[in-house]
Structure formats: C-alpha cells, structure tokens
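Hi C.,

You asked whether I'd gotten around to modeling the 107-residue construct. I have! Everything is below, sequence then structure, no commentary in between.
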Amino acid sequence: LLPSSSSHSLPPPPSSRLPLSSPPCVPRRLPAIVREVRGWGLILGIELSEEAPTAVEVSAELLQQGMLTVPAGPKVVRLVPPLVVSEDEVTEAATKLEAALLKLSSA
C-alpha cells in the first residue's frame, strides 16, 4: 500500500479505458432475443425477451464455454467482469454470449 501522503498514483485499470457508452459485450444485433440492457460500465444486466431462453439456460451454456455469468431473475443474465478485464476478453465474451443466445434460441 502507498502512504496517503504519497504523490504516486496508480494507472487506471484496463477496463476503465474501454468504450463504455456502447459496450461491445452486448449483442444488440439480436433484438428478437435481447429486450433491454441495463447497467453501469461493464456491469450489465441483459434482459431477454419472452421468446428467448431463460437466464439459467443461457448461464449454463456460457459456463460450458468457460464464461461465468449469473442469472438475475428468470430473464436477466448478469455480467460482472473483473476490474482488470482486457478489451480482447470483452470481445471474446461478446462472441460467446451471442453464440449461446443464437444456439439456445434455435433449439
């Protein structure tokens, strides 16, 4: 830990430099599946449409792909990436999320 009187400052975490006005991890190209996206920065809740699979189904599929998400109700998938997430990891997460939604919606 740095003393409080220190003039040193730590660089911002990588996630703070990602474009937050339009998070790349949200599959907005799927309006029939994604109803709404809510959140702050990269902490997001993706609300699925009534016709879409449940949040538990999506989270289970993503877990099989190595991505941990949390259902936040029957139709909301919560994304809470680590503070040090890289832009490449965010892009990978977006790809996995979109693939899971498309796979489960066509099943």
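If it helps when you're writing up: The helical segments are 55-64, 87-106.

Thanks,
B.
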